Amino acid sequence: MPPPKDVVKIAIQMVGAIPQLIELQQTKPLASVIKDVCDAWSLPNAERYALQYADGRQTYITESNRRDIKNGSILRLTTSPDQEAERLYIGIQSKNVDVKTDSLKKLASLSQDVTFAQEFISRNGLKQIYSIVEEGNDTGEMLAHTLKAFTELMEHDFVSWENLSTVFIKKIVSYVNMNAVDASIQQLSLSILENMVPTSRLLFEVVKKEVTLDRLLTHLQVTNAQLQLKAMALLIALLLSASDTERRDMMEYLREKNIRQFIHKNIIHSSEPLGDEMAHYLYVLQSVSLNLREHRMKMSMDPYSQEQRDLLQSLRQTAFELESEAAAGTFSTERRRSLCAKEFRKLGFLNNSNPAEDLRRAPPGLLALDNMVYFSRNTPNAYSRFILENSSREDKHECPFARSSIQLTLILCEILHIGEPCSETAQAFYPMFFGQDNFFEELFSICIQLVNKTWKEMRATQEDFDKVMQVVREQITRTLSLKPTSLELFKTRVNALNYSEILKLRQTERLHQEETLAVPVLELREKLKPELLELIRQQRLLHLCEGTLFRKISSRRRQDKLWYCRLSPNHKVLHYGDVEEGVQSPPIESLTEKIPVADMKMLLVGKECPHTKEKSSGKQNKDVLELAFSIVHDVEEYCLNFIAPTRYEFCLWTDGLNVLLGKEMTSERTQTDLDVLLSMELKLRLLDLENISIPDNPPPIPKPPSNLNFCYDFSHAEQ
């Protein structure tokens, strides 16, 4: 008979004693449980003891988390958090260097526990930490333990970062700015400053002033990958917390210092593989850089601005330089105006008498004008060839440069997500972005020539403008999905993907769709579905057995803490636990926490998850909502909360958990995988019917014959 739900069988250890095997009554007060354990070992003063997990993070057991204890858990009887906090509070003030160092080391370890942290902070323990940092000149092991303990204590959000003194902050800054300091101390100092920056405008300004961009660039150029990562994290925190003007100035300074070339050569193309965290920071840097164009994208052209009018006129003058000079000397004002209108029409403006009207639509606003001017100034030959080639064509076949440029700029803004907030978890950056100065403008210059090429291939007229731009969008997105490493490679591939290739791809997709819509094929699909769905279920469970590395994300920042979760090979238990950075696939024995599949009640996703409800409901958390899911388990309905590293992992895990719960797989990935498998299976089954049309209805069954005399009577033969 299974034990009641409020009773768990556990083991309790103590150094120098024989372990006890007990049945823990969850309804019994924890103090009474500890007293019974102490009595069994003849230990007085039970109030001085507490229970904690023997493995993993060794969290203290409290009334609030005791329901997390599972059957088979191993606990340890140890000093209570208040006693330990008091002992370490005294220990870190010791005059004996060894005692002080050991106390700080122990403090750094125990401070991860919220119960201990609360006890230590309530004794004004942080004040002692401040004193050690502010008054000490040590830069060795003792300081490293002190900074680690401070970081862990602040992680619990009991104390505001704004309470830090100027002296303390400047001391932390000095460790970042000093050369002869241990790398571990610099890493911790950079991490502390990174946490500090987003919390208030005042702290941002202090850090920005004290830690120069030059200093951060110096740290980025070291060979120590962790130090490089922390420097990048602080740089990104400063950029995200800066005002628009400050961000623009910082990015301009970084551009002057050639950070792009350094990242491209020493980080992206480093011998070491790029970690998830660094990939995210590169994505943010790319996003911040591209978003500098947002204000131009949203700004309509002002027809009364002399600067903007000069830019517009420069387009005409570059294309028709000789004609313009001749006209200036011989024609009247009215004739010159008429000639200008004609030239603007040749440039492809819809409103040739007042071309500024074409640029009043925002987006793309003035960004389209900037792109056209950049193209005309940096590739004048290609620009002139585009304009003159089209102005000599018949009216109905000329490709309108200006109209195409405006629409192309809008397409590129949508593809590159210009004007959208940075995602908290995305890692999708384009390596070619860091391989080219003026990436957006150079990309435009390649794509506007692609527009002209595609226009000619389609033999398009003005009525076909939208169709041409749809093809160009498809050419760009298909090529970008291949992740070319340089703009030159992008140019080669996008030009190779000509209109005829696009037609072939579309035709293949259409034929495939038509084949699969025939009635007999649809019936065959339905018969194959159960078998293939079972195959997908097995794949999902296999993925859960392999396990995934998840990252803990708070509302304040991306966390460095990692945990791993995997399903047991017999599909009966979910194992999970904290792991260190760099661990790819920990053995199942090292994952100390467990959830029996039989105890799982339901799966929650997105806004239903408790850990998303705790967060602020800002637009920056939208991507987290799309990756969040929770498992509700036990009678008390406790939750194990996840934030998947990618949408792909989210789909596989939610599908796998639904399979374990005996429910349908609901992710979009299931439908995609099913379509792919059905397509492959159907093609194999219909291979012999190639070029044979499949009728919608089966052939009619012939009428039965008038007699059955042609049948042989076996009964006579047997006699």
UniProtKB/TrEMBL annotation:
<dbReference type="InterPro" id="IPR006816">
    <property type="entry name" value="ELMO_dom"/>
</dbReference>
<feature type="domain" description="ELMO">
    <location>
        <begin position="307"/>
        <end position="480"/>
    </location>
</feature>
<dbReference type="GO" id="GO:0007015">
    <property type="term" value="P:actin filament organization"/>
</dbReference>
<protein>
    <submittedName>
        <fullName>ELMO3 protein</fullName>
    </submittedName>
</protein>
<dbReference type="InterPro" id="IPR016024">
    <property type="entry name" value="ARM-type_fold"/>
</dbReference>
<dbReference type="InterPro" id="IPR011993">
    <property type="entry name" value="PH-like_dom_sf"/>
</dbReference>
<dbReference type="Pfam" id="PF11841">
    <property type="entry name" value="ELMO_ARM"/>
</dbReference>
<comment type="function">
    <text>Involved in cytoskeletal rearrangements required for phagocytosis of apoptotic cells and cell motility. Acts in association with DOCK1 and CRK. Was initially proposed to be required in complex with DOCK1 to activate Rac Rho small GTPases. May enhance the guanine nucleotide exchange factor (GEF) activity of DOCK1.</text>
</comment>
<dbReference type="InterPro" id="IPR001849">
    <property type="entry name" value="PH_domain"/>
</dbReference>
<dbReference type="InterPro" id="IPR050868">
    <property type="entry name" value="ELMO_domain-containing"/>
</dbReference>
<dbReference type="InterPro" id="IPR011989">
    <property type="entry name" value="ARM-like"/>
</dbReference>
<keyword id="KW-0729">SH3-binding</keyword>
<dbReference type="GO" id="GO:0017124">
    <property type="term" value="F:SH3 domain binding"/>
</dbReference>
<dbReference type="GO" id="GO:0006909">
    <property type="term" value="P:phagocytosis"/>
</dbReference>
<dbReference type="Pfam" id="PF16457">
    <property type="entry name" value="PH_12"/>
</dbReference>
<keyword id="KW-0581">Phagocytosis</keyword>
<dbReference type="GO" id="GO:0006915">
    <property type="term" value="P:apoptotic process"/>
</dbReference>
<keyword id="KW-0053">Apoptosis</keyword>
<dbReference type="InterPro" id="IPR024574">
    <property type="entry name" value="ELMO_ARM"/>
</dbReference>
<dbReference type="GO" id="GO:0048870">
    <property type="term" value="P:cell motility"/>
</dbReference>
<dbReference type="Pfam" id="PF04727">
    <property type="entry name" value="ELMO_CED12"/>
</dbReference>
